[in-house]
C-alpha cells in the first residue's frame, strides 16, 4: 500500500504545470501540461486539498475512479459520457420547455408536467459515502444538484426489485431510529405537489414515493424518516428519504442518490433551519482524487467570488446563473450578451457543459485555433478530441467564464476544459435557450450554493 507521502508526491507530479505568457498581454493565458495528467491513475489519492475548516466535510469521489468504495467496473468513454450527458440535458430542456408552455397557457387547462420525474442518473459521476440509521450503515450515493428526493435501496428486496450493489442493502428492520412516514401527514402530502407521491402503501398506513428518471431508471418504496450521519459527529436526526423496494433501469453499483436541488425534499432544504439551505462541494481534478461536500456556508467567504442565482421559471429544483462572456487563451470571445438570456443550469449530475449555439461555435473555433499544433482524432459525432500520442507535454489555452456581476472564473487547465483529451463543451440548442454547466468545468472549484443569499460562489484551487 502506498504511503500518504508517496500519494502527495504523485499528486504534485501529475498536477504540475508551467504557465507561460501570451505575447503582448502579459497575462498567463496558456498552460503547458504534462500528457501524463491525461492518463487515469489507478491509485486513490485521499488528499482533499484545502477544504474549509468548519462544516464536517464528507469526501466526494468519482464513481468510476479508484477511491469509490462501490466502484463501477467501467469508466465510460468520452463518446459515452457525451451521450449520457445529452440524454440528461435533453430531458432537462424538454422539462424546461413544458414549464415555459405552462406559463404561457396559464388561462387554458393546466398542462400537466410529467409526473414523478427526476433527471437522468446515468450521467452522474460523483458519489459520497453516508451513514444511514442506528447503528449507521455506510451507503454510497450519487451527488445530484439536479434532483431533490434522496433514496437508497432497502431490504428486504430480491433481485427483481433491487439491482446489484456492492454494499449491503440498508435494512430498516435493523435500525433503531427508522420510522416510516405516515400516509396523510404534511410531509407525505407535500410529495404530491412535487410529483413524487405514490399513494399510501402497507395497508394504507405508510407514505409511498416514486421517482422516474429521464433515462428510464426508477425507484419506488416508502418515504421514511431516519438518522443520517454525514461525518463523525455530524448527524441529521430527521432526514426524510425514500426507502426503495422496487428499482429499475440502467443503475448499477451505487446504493442510491443524494438530492441537493432546491425543492423541499432535498437535503439542503430539509436542513435549512440549521444550515440556511447553504452547501458547497469541490469535485477533484482527476477521477483518482478526493474532493468534499459540506453543509452550511463558511463564516468567512472572502475567498469566493459570487454571482446571483436566478430562478428557472418556477421550477425550484435547478440552480441557474447567467453567463455573460467566455475567454479562450486570454482573449475575450465576441459574443452578444443576449444569446445567454436563457441562463445556465449548474448541474453536478451532468458531465459536459452545454452552451447555446453561438457561444459554442465561437468557443470551439477559438479552442481549435489555439490547439492547432495537435492532430484531431477522426469523429462522426463532431467531438473535438486530440491525439496526444507522442507528446510529453501540451500547451492548452486557459478558458474563463464570466458570470453576471462581473465574476470571472478560470477553469482548471487541463481538467476543467478537457475530458480524456476531448473538449468538454457541446451545443445545447439555439441562442437564448437554457444551457448547462457540467461537472468537468467545476473540477477543483469549491462551488458554494448560498441559496438564502441568492448567490453561487466560486473558490479556486479548493481541492
Ligand atoms: C420478488 O419480490 C416480488 C415482491 O416484492 C415478487 O412479486 C417476486 O415474485 C419476487 N421475485 C423472486 C424471483 O423471488
Ligand atoms: C478571511 O479569509 C481570508 C483568506 O481567505 C483572510 O485573508 C482574512 O483575514 C479572513 N478574514 C477574517 C475576518 O478572518
Ligand atoms: C495518433 O497518433 C499516432 C502518432 O502520430 C498515430 O500512430 C496513431 O495512429 C494516431 N491514432 C489515431 C487513432 O489516429
Ligand atoms: C516539454 O517537453 C519537452 C520534451 O519533449 C521538454 O524539452 C520541454 O522542456 C517541456 N516543456 C515544458 C514547459 O515543460
UniProtKB/TrEMBL annotation:
One of its GO terms (molecular function) is aspartic-type endopeptidase activity. The keyword Metal-binding does not apply. Pfam families: TAXi_C, TAXi_N. Residues 126-459 form the Peptidase A1 domain. InterPro entries: Aspartic_peptidase_A1, Aspartic_peptidase_AS, PEPTIDASE_A1, Peptidase_aspartic_dom_sf, TAXi_C, TAXi_N. The keyword Hydrolase applies. GO terms for biological process: proteolysis. Residues 1-23 form the signal peptide. Keywords: Aspartyl protease, Disulfide bond, Hydrolase, Protease, Signal. The active site is at residues 144, 347. Gene3D superfamilies: Acid Proteases. Belongs to the peptidase A1 family. This is Peptidase A1 domain-containing protein.
